[in-house]
Amino acid sequence: MMCDDAGLLLHAYLDDELDAASSAAVARHLHDCSACKARYETYAIMQKALSEPALYRRAPDALRAQWTTPVAPAAASKVTPITVRRRTPVAFAAAAGFAAAVLLSVPAWLHWLPSRGADNAIVAQAIAGHLRSLQGEHLLDVVSTDQHTVKPWFEGKLDFSPRVKDLAPEGFPLVGGRLDALDGHSVAALIYKRRLHVINLFQWPAENGSATQVATQEHGYTVIRWTGDGMHYVVISDVNEGDLKQFVLAFQNEANPLMAR
C-alpha cells in the first residue's frame, strides 16, 4: 500500500469502518511508515480533543423554554409553512473551510476550553506545543537516536547546553529534538517515544534552585514540571501518568555532569 492510498483510508481506519482486509493493510503500512503513523496519531488526538465535554455548552434556559413551550391553538392555526431552502454549495464550502481551519490549527481548540488560572498557563502552552509538534513535519528538527548527535545540534541555536540522554534501556528511546518556545523562553525540546506514544521534554535555564515535581492532568494529557540541575523541565505525553513518572525518574537519575560531555 502506498502513502497516498493509506492517507485516504486513515479516517475510516480510525473510526473502525474498514473491512478486515483493508484494516490489516493499513495497519501494516502504519507499522512500516513513520510519516503516515504520525499523521494517524494526529488524527487520533484531534478526535479525542473534539469529543471533550468542555467543548459543548447547555442551551440557555430562555432558549430551552421556547423549544418546550406549547403553541396556543389560535397561534398554531396562523403558522405559515416555511419553505425549506436547500443549502448552497457556498454554505457547504464555508462549513468545510471552518472544519479544515480547526484541523489545521490543532492548538486553536485549547482557547475554547475553560481556563483554570494563570498558574496553569505553562501547562496549556505545553499541551499546545505538544499538539503542534504532532502536525506534519513539526516534531523534529534533528532526527537521531544518538545523544552525541542531538546535543551538539543545539550548539549556536540556544544560549545554553541542554541535557540529553538516551533512555532506550528504560523503554524510552530518544528519537531527536527541535527548537521551541515555552513561557516566553526559547527552549530545547527533546523527543522520546514510549511504544507509539510521543513524549516531549522541554527544558531551559532556571534562575532559582530546585523544585519538586508537580503532575497535572489536562484534556487527556499528563504534564510534569520540576526544576533541578539549573534547569526548568516540562514533560508532556498521553501515556499514563505512571509511565511518565517512570520517564522522569529515569531522566533525573541520569541528569549528572557526565551528560555534558
TrEMBL record:
Keyword Transcription regulation found: no
Membrane-crossing residue ranges in chain numbering: 90-112
Domain Putative zinc-finger: 3-36
Annotated signal peptide: none
Keywords: Membrane, Transmembrane, Transmembrane helix
Name by which UniProt lists this protein: Putative zinc-finger domain-containing protein
Native species: Dyella japonica DSM 16301
InterPro entries, alphabetized: Anti_sigma_zinc_sf, Znf_put
Keyword Transmembrane helix attached: yes
